Structure prediction request, 395 residues.
Amino acid sequence: MIAARALAMRYGDRRVFRGVDVELADGAFLLVTGPNGSGKTTLLRVLAGLAAPTSGELRRPERHTIGYLGHDPLVYRELTPLENLTLFGRLYRLPERGERIGMLLERFGLWDVRHERVSTFSRGMQQRLGLCRVLLHDPQLLLLDEPYNALDAQGAALLDDLLGEERTHVVATHEPQRVEARATQRLAFA
Amino acid sequence: MTYLSDVVALTRKDLLLELRAKETLPSMLLFVLAALTIFHFALPRGAGHTAALGLLWSALIFTALLGLTRAFVAEREQGMFDALVLAPCDRSAIWLAKSLAVLAFLAAAEVVALPAFAAFFSGIGGRTVVAVALADLGIAAVGTLFGAMAVAGRARELLLPLLFLPMAIPIVVGGVGGYLWFLVLYDAIFVVLAWATFEYVVAEV
Prediction:
């Protein structure tokens, strides 16, 4: 699924990380831990193809098979959940997107607010919608950056269920207790 | 067909965002009317039609710049470039859709600006209207490309005018002089260039 060798990243004079080796088979669960600013987010962006590493080799799946959730939920705040998911459903060329969107909105408790603007939502509801967007095209690889951010107990439980599904996961968090048991591999940044 | 449907979906999104937020078009309208009013009092009595036309083109270029600075606000503030770039659509569709939205805002601003110019200064000929329409194409194409570049930069408020205004000089020359073929040539070159290079502007990898 992912093969990275000696990955390194610098921003100008600042070294973010170096010598990162990652080999992930289908269905693996990589837990990335470390304090703020240690390079977790940058690594996920590199794995998603959103940033180019300064050096090293990287093999990763096609971008349409990746689901990426960053620090922001990556949804348009002036659109409704239905409009956001319909837009991305079109861009991902989903054949039966109406059904898939309805199922995801139901699953994450957003069906009743599907016609309301995202800007009126709490941060936790926006995070749930971000998860719906990530899952819309049923990706094989999920890259999640601090996914429990802002989620209440119910939202966190929904995310727990999601992380238990048959996929390859890379989860970056500075609170690893919640997903520790699922991890098949670990990468700790200092 | 999928390319076209991507462009339609993305353009619809941009127009919908503006319809809801009402931030870009009202500021463009206010700006162009204010600029023409100031120019009306600044231009000496008896100044020729060409001088007035020069002021019209200056007002249009700076109004366009105002619209372009806001063109990627949602993508910048909400990190939406990441989500769009990861989608399997052709990245040039993002540029084309945004250019069409910018074109719509420019046209809307000019529907107000041109009659206002006719009222303040002198009548507008058909050649000027065609020149403005042709200029809009070039402005939208080049401005959207530079707008996307500026989003990635740190001094984005400074970067966009620095990139865009020099590229707008040929548009002003062609517009004031009424050189329609020159504007057609400008559009043809820069629409193709912007379409072909946008991919490299939005993607680091």
Chain B touches chain A through 25 residues (CB under 8 Å).
